[in-house]
Write a structure and sequence with these properties.
Layout: E1 9-14, E2 19-29, E3 32-38, E4 44-46, H1 71-96, E5 102-104, E6 116-119, E7 123-132, E8 135-140, E9 144-148
Parallel strand pairs: 5-6
Antiparallel strand pairs: 1-2, 2-3, 3-4, 6-7, 7-8, 8-9
Length: 152
Amino acid sequence: MAEPTSDLETLAYCGACKMDLIATIVAKVGSKIVKVQCNTCRKERAYKAPKGITEPGQVVEKAAKTKRKSAAEKAEDEAAAKSVSIEVEWKRLMDAAAKAARVKYTVKAKLNLGDVVQHPMFGEGIVMRIAHPDKAEIIFKTDLKLLVHSRP
């Protein structure tokens, strides 16, 4: 990072450039910098200290670089955590409803809260919530689905 070359310049955050840049000091009140002009975009604005600095003249320390996860890695981590917690909850609910009768899922079938549903694609699930008179939220082993029911 470039250093100020004189006492008339300082490192300041530029809102237009969205970066910490060298700026020319335009106004001071006592020893406090009040107004600066960005040397890159030439816009004049109130002084904002660079990120991580509270006092003018303080040196910026470079933070240790950390490996950032890509969006795909973040989504994969969230999906893994979500599937584990959903699977644990599903297993707990299925154990509690072991003796309940199974209802074969069709669009026409009337579902009630707590029913154990046998779905041809998702497998066994339990009705967690009736979201609408004809929609039910059902927890399956790997996911939570909103499915229609009670349709003529």
